[in-house]
Input
Amino acid sequence: MLLRLKQLFDREGERKELGFEIPSCELGSIFGVGTFVTPVSLVGEIVNRAGVVSLSYSLSVTIHHLCDRCLDEFNREYKLDFSHILVRGEISMDEEEYVGCPEDTLDVNELAIQDLLLSLPTKSLCREDCRGLCPVCGQNLNHGDCDCEK
Output
């Protein structure tokens, strides 16, 4: 969703509520992350307080993963909160704490997906105490022990 923010940048006290979904068909499957089971639901607001324009939002989504230890499939729901300070125009690489809005526009979908992907764990486990697979016979040790020598 592309937002025009000229009015927000120009008027102190201006506010814009956000509430929309990014359809899972637009996201599909991302290698190493999983498949998006539900749309990415986003709720938040953009506010100009004393000339500083800030975006804060929450997103929720369910992703279908493959466990990195035992290879079992599982779904996990994520609920994450984000906030950014928006600035007009392009930003340089050393200003990573800001989000640039060239021509006073912001692609909220792109920003939300970027935030989500950077917040996901690097290792997807079906549960904290996943025992993985036996390195000898391949038995899933979460379902029972095998007869291999330890």
